[in-house]
Amino acid sequence: MVYLRTIKLLREEFPNTKEYPFHLPSLRKLKTIDLEASVTFFVGENGSGKSTMLEGVAYQCGFHTAGGSRNNYYDVDRSDSSLGDYIRLSWLPKMTNGFFLRAESFYHFASHIDETERIRGTGYSGYGGRSLHNQSHGESFFALFANRFNGRGIYLLDEPEAALSPKRQIAFLYLMQDLVEEGAQFIIATHSPILLGYPDAKILNFDESPVQEVNYRDTEHYQLTRRFLENPAIFLNEK
Ligand SMILES: Nc1ncnc2c1ncn2[C@@H]1O[C@H](COP(=O)(O)OP(=O)(O)OP(=O)(O)O)[C@@H](O)[C@H]1O
């Protein structure tokens, strides 16, 4: 299901096109991003602006920009969204349920859930019944996906593969397929050639200026990984 249909950049309100984030090549000429599929991936080199865009969208969704939903109020590590005030989201229908996952600040989110459990006794209810800190990084991610995510919602995930083994990444694809069938929308920044293989996803390449759609098999992630796996030794000798 597609709830969030367009991300529009309010270019005329950009204060300065020479500084972060307005100077990023991926954003420089970008006017709108159309989200036409239930699953949209942001791909691109490190530093191309994927997280910046995702964080801006999370900010406009009202989600905690360090990770969480509309219901997670905690002060730890809240990051200012530099792009958030300069984008406009078009919804049909409007969706307020959802979650913003940031691999890098997940530790703080887990602490916030522990604190909610300590104060109100409700913290672990959506997370598999136990502290996210008492599970491995990958297990805790998976507990979040499997327990906290449900069908009707918008899920913004920044490198969800960070803690997942290849097997768990494939399990995540199954889970995502079920959630999409139940009506979920995903926007995912990723470097994973496994996740990118999700059928019918729209892949947006942040290495282009402005951002452009790209086919799975044309992504550098697919091509490089494929060539490497075919023969790592030859690949390394080509350096
Ligand atoms: N708060 C900030 N102030 C100044 N520059 C920043 C800030 N946050 C990020 N940048 C820079 O902006 C660029 C884009 O960062 P961003 O995190 O959006 O990239 P990314 O595509 O998500 O990269 P990665 O794949 O490594 O996560 C990078 O060069 C980064 O160093």
Automatic annotation (TrEMBL):
It is found in: Cell membrane. InterPro entries: AAA+_ATPase, ABC_transporter-like_ATP-bd, ATPase_AAA_core, P-loop_NTPase, Rad50/SbcC_AAA, Siderophore_ABC-ATPase. Residues 4-233 form the ABC transporter domain. PROSITE patterns: ABC_TRANSPORTER_2 (PS50893). The keyword tRNA processing does not apply. This is AAA family ATPase. Keywords: ATP-binding, Cell membrane, Ion transport, Iron, Iron transport, Membrane, Nucleotide-binding, Transport. Pfam families: AAA_21, AAA_23.
